Amino acid sequence: MIKLYQYQPAFGLPNASPFCMKLETYLRMAGLPFEAPPVSLRELGRAPKGKMPYIEDKGCTLADTTFIIGYLQAGYGDRLDSWLSAEQKAVACAFQRLMEENLYWAVVYTRWVEAQGWEETRAAFFAALPAPLRWVLPPLARRGMLRQMRGHGMGRHTGEEIVAIGKRDITALADFLGVKPYLMGEEPCSLDATGYAFLANLLWPPVESALKQHAQTYPQLQAYCERMRVRYYA
Fold this sequence. Notes:
By secondary structure, the protein is mainly α. The chain is about 60% helix and about 5% strand. Helix 1 links the parallel strand 1 (about 1-5) and strand 2. It has helices at about 20-30, 40-45, 65-75, 85-110, 115-125, 135-150, 160-175, 190-205, 210-215, 220-234; strands at about 1-5, 35, 55, 60-65. The protein contains 10 helices and 4 strands; from the N terminus they run βαβαββαααααααα. A 4-stranded mixed sheet has the order 2-1-3-4, with helices on one face. The longest helix has 27 residues, at about 85-110. It folds into 2 domains: about 1-75, Glutaredoxin, CATH 3.40.30.10; about 85-234, Glutathione S-transferase Yfyf (Class Pi), Chain A, domain 2, CATH 1.20.1050.10.
């Protein structure tokens, strides 16, 4: 049985980390049995790269969702992407990078930098911790996230510039999805695990932002997320 280690649900989502939600969604889409044990600080400390999610399977501990999915495809068969052409796989790779390496950091800005978003994030992620951790950890975690944003490069832009970058990504996703039921066509593929996780994490949490408002102007994005939710989480 695959063991999935990830953060606890928050914001009414399976996971408020889009990377954790991506991996759980992939496991559900691929029909791979798994269990998700409760995670403590001990499990977080054991994470191979210091981040969630990670898995344990057949004596192997593996981190990073892209490497994990590659491992699962090699070991259990490619149950989702075998129908894609080489060109389609290239396009899927590009859109995955758009969401994970660019849009992600714009959404991080709305949660960890903007005042209203930070209040919602602090309450969702840290309110259940015992004292004094719920007082000590939030500012430390926030400073760490801001350092990561600056190291990535997104944190070196102004707020207006970050919003403009995120809006362009959202528009690209909406235009690419169009009237298709799934990102690559009539059937879902592994890119949809990423698409659902990242778009639902933008549209559905109670974090109001210019990015969320922009995404809400594209009804196909909301319909897509609802379609994925019903199919894999109903």
